[in-house]
Design goal:
By secondary structure, this protein is an alpha/beta fold. Helices cover 47% and strands 12% of the residues. The protein contains 17 helices and ten strands. The strands form two sheets. The chain has a seven-stranded mixed β-sheet. A three-stranded antiparallel β-sheet has the order 3-5-4. The chain is globular.
């Protein structure tokens, strides 16, 4: 398969199938196309390209390509931080809000073999002493029909329990030979259907995809072309009830138009809630940015390796520890104001902190996010550059500045910022948490960066 045809096929798959195939995955793409050529009895890759180009209905090919080109791996309670957030905050809040109607609707999109959907059912079982008075609907969908078949059976091997405690496994499963079988009471609480996020129309009452209180779609958008992500996010928003919550993987909606969704930040994760009166940015403005919470502790990272014209090094005198401690407490308050929608109060707190401690980077960073939300992107860039001036290891500032450059069409500078963030992260342990990214690990943020445009591979 010649290089030019390979590129055309990559571009076509991104536009029609919605899957973003990176250049480093070209060998995998060659193998996948060769398999499809054999399966369809075609003359070669060129004929397969024309089939994808001309066929009106390519739903079957979307499934055939999406499965090998994306990772469908999952397991029970895969993200301990997220499930703690669901158990302690999100689900109790939704149950309280829906208490008068006693109805809760949850959708696990791109659920693979069902572990995430069943994890939610287990969390609800632990939260609620009696569900008999409630109408609780949990739906899992996936483009992979074989995965849906396995999910419906509720039978799993040891590999699916890497994130589940032995206590939970003993309570909700029983062993059968070399497998574990889910308790029927939990299995019956979850429904599964095949579903194509790109091609299917939703909300859709016929399939039950409407008025959802909670939608989870994690680690799926990283494989999709940006225009497809935006389109699916809009459909998710329409499918949520007012006040409903969308949870994606880390950074998957970063720099996408959020419409009626508002970011809510918790130490464990960022979630998006549908609001009645969304903020409307100016026509040419970038999307509402995500505000991240301040961590309890900040781990030092190596100095950045500058790859483009950059600010001078930070002042050598540093910031006294007592100033850092004082700033940490007041900074936490500033983040709270921001995350509660009190933008003016948050900005005022940042400015007061900067007046007292001008060498602390974090208030400048939060102020940059607030400035972006107002649509003043030139000022936001100045603030982000100052953050990097004060703290060479501030990964979030590099990534945010890269996004602003990308929006301006300056792919070279965008790439340099993202590469610097990647270099900083690669010097850290893969399972370490990243400053201002909640429970996300270094490996998770690196995976996100590798799928960004303008990043050299």
């Amino acid at each position: 398969m010649e290089k030019a045809l390979l590129k055309r096929t990559r571009d076509l798959i991104a536009s029609r199938i919605g899957v973003l195939v990176r250049e480093q995955d070209d060998e995998l793409l060659r193998k996948v196309v060769a398999e499809r050529v054999r399966a369809l009895n075609l003359s070669g890759a060129e004929q397969y390209f024309h089939l994808l180009s001309s066929a009106a209905d390519i739903r079957h090919e979307r499934e055939a390509l999406a499965i090998p080109l994306t990772a469908g791996e999952t397991y029970f309670f895969r993200d301990s931080g997220l499930h703690a957030l669901l158990l302690n905050s999100i689900l109790p809040e939704l149950l309280e809000r829906r208490n008068t109607v006693r109805m809760l609707r949850i959708w696990c999109a791109a659920c693979s073999t069902g572990e995430e959907a069943y994890s939610l059912a287990i969390l609800l079982d632990e939260l609620m002493a009696d569900q008999s008075q409630w109408n609780i609907y949990i739906l899992g969908t996936d483009i992979n029909h074989s995965a849906i078949d396995k999910a419906q059976r509720g039978i799993y091997t040891e590999w699916s329990f890497r994130g589940m405690s032995d206590e939970r496994r003993q309570r909700y499963f029983h062993r059968h030979k070399n497998t574990w079988v889910l308790d029927d009471a939990i299995r019956r609480r979850v429904s599964f259907l095949p579903g194509d996020l790109v091609a299917d129309q939703f909300p859709d009452h016929a399939s039950g995809l409407h008025e959802m209180d909670l939608i989870l779609c994690r680690n799926t958008f990283i494989y999709m072309a940006p225009h497809v992500v935006s389109r699916i996010a809009d459909k998710f928003t329409e499918t949520l009830t007012e006040g409903g919550i969308l949870i994606t993987g880390h950074g998957e909606l970063y720099a996408h138009h959020l419409g009626a969704l508002r970011a809510r930040v918790f130490p464990e994760s960022i979630v998006y809630q549908k609001v009645i009166a969304p903020y409307c940015p100016p026509p040419q403005a970038p999307l509402t940015e995500t505000l991240r919470p301040a961590p309890k502790r900040t781990a030092a990272a190596p100095s950045a390796i500058w790859k483009t014209s950059a600010p001078p090094p930070p002042p050598k005198q540093g910031v006294p520890e007592i100033c850092k401690e004082m700033a940490g407490s007041e900074m936490h308050q500033a983040w709270q104001h921001a995350n509660q929608g009190q933008r003016d109060q948050a900005a005022k707190s940042c400015e007061e902190l900067i007046a007292k401690n001008p060498l602390v980077a974090e208030p400048h960073y939060l102020l940059a996010l607030l400035t972006q939300e107002r649509g003043d992107f030139a000022k936001a860039k100045e603030l982000l550059k100052k953050v990097i001036y004060l703290d060479h290891s501030f990964v979030a500032a590099y990534l945010d500045l890269g996004d602003l450059y990308e929006r301006e069409g300056d792919s070279m500078r965008a790439g340099k910022m993202r590469e610097t963030a990647r270099d900083l992260l690669k010097a850290l342990p893969g399972d370490a948490q990243v400053k201002l990214y909640g429970a996300s690990t270094v490996n998770a943020v690196l995976q996100y960066i590798e799928h960004l445009p303008s990043i050299s591979k």
